[in-house]
Amino acid sequence: MKKVYPDAHAALAGVISDGMTIMAGGFGLCGIPDLLIEAIRDSGAKNLTIVSNNAGIDGVGLGVLLETRQVKKMISSYVGENKTFAQQYLAGELEIEFNPQGTLAERIRAGGAGIPAFYTKTGYGTLIAEGKETREFDGEMYVMERGLFADLAVVHAWKGDTEGNLVYRKTARNFNPMMATAARVTVAQVEHLVQPGEIDPDHIITPGIFVSRIVHAPNAAKRIEQRTVRKAA
User: Fold this and answer.
1) Could you tell me the sign of the dihedral formed by the alpha carbons of 19, 23, 29, 31, in that order?
2) pLDDT band at 80 (very low <50, low <70, confident <90, very high)
3) Domain holding 32: CATH number?
4) How far is CA 34 from CA 93, 120, 171, in A?
5) Does residue 90 fall inside a structural domain?
6) Which terminus of the chain, N or C, has less C-beta within 10 A?
7) Predicted pLDDT at 144
């Protein structure tokens, strides 16, 4: 089966529909699958539930889906850089399910591993635990969290081969690998696309069995979320 598609729109053709749950990889603006996110926007799909560590910023990343009001619900850890998100949430137009960052990561990992639920101490006794099952283990109280599994995962990789084996680089490794395992269909945008055998097997992070479709993204934007420099002398 050929996994490589000519562009992001072709890679998502026949996959996107209203009401889907979509995982979007990345950390801040690092390692976000921006071409695939823009293709989701262009599809016009609405009432989407998006699982992502953050919501991008205005006009970048998931921010483009918020601007077109295609997102019904966000399952996230941090959304503080997006004014559009704040406006829609405060107006009651957007639902948010907040998670501690480690809990969100583990919920995704658990979903990919076929684990329906797990217990964590994080969040016990806080608003995070409201309405959730709690249990005592060895004298400590824990909160039960459900694993997450999506209809679609869109991820960004630094290098990949045409069989779908992926390698991530530095901070872009956050969330992308676990999301790639936790969806019915995973589509990857890859900066450096190579032939099978050109990646050392010991360097592969996501095996190709998890990846359904690939699009080559050789000119990926390297944006800086908050630029900090020294003041001029």
Assistant:
1) negative
2) confident
3) 3.40.1080.10
4) 24, 32, 16
5) yes
6) C
7) 98
Closest residue by Cα to residue 31 from 131, 159, 149, 199: 159
Structure tokens at 100: 């501690």
Q: Whole-angstrom Cα distance, residue 179 to residue 154?
A: 8
Please count the residues of the chain: 233
Flag whether 159 is in a domain. Answer: yes
Buried b (16+ CB within 10 A) or exposed e, 71-99: beebbbbbbebbebbeebbeeeebeeeeb
8 Å CB contact between 42 and 164: no
If you compute the radius of gyration of the chain from its CA atoms, what whole number of angstroms results? Answer: 18
Sheet order of strands, 140-146 included: 117-120, 140-146, 134-137
Q: Rounded distance, CA 231 to CA 3, Å? A: 48
**What is the distance between the alpha carbons of residues 24 and 38, in angstroms, rounded to a whole number?**
12
pLDDT value at residue 1: 63
Identify the three-state secondary structure at position 26. Answer: coil
Q: Is residue 194 in a domain?
A: yes
Residue-range definition of the domain harbouring residue 97: 4-113+148-216
Tens digit of each residue's pLDDT (9 = 90 or more) over 172-219: 999 999 999 999 999 999 999 999 999 999 999 999 999 999 999 998
Average pLDDT, the chain: 94
Residue 224 lies in a domain: no
The count of structural domains within the chain is 1
Number of C-alpha atoms within 13 angstroms, CB side, residue 155? 36
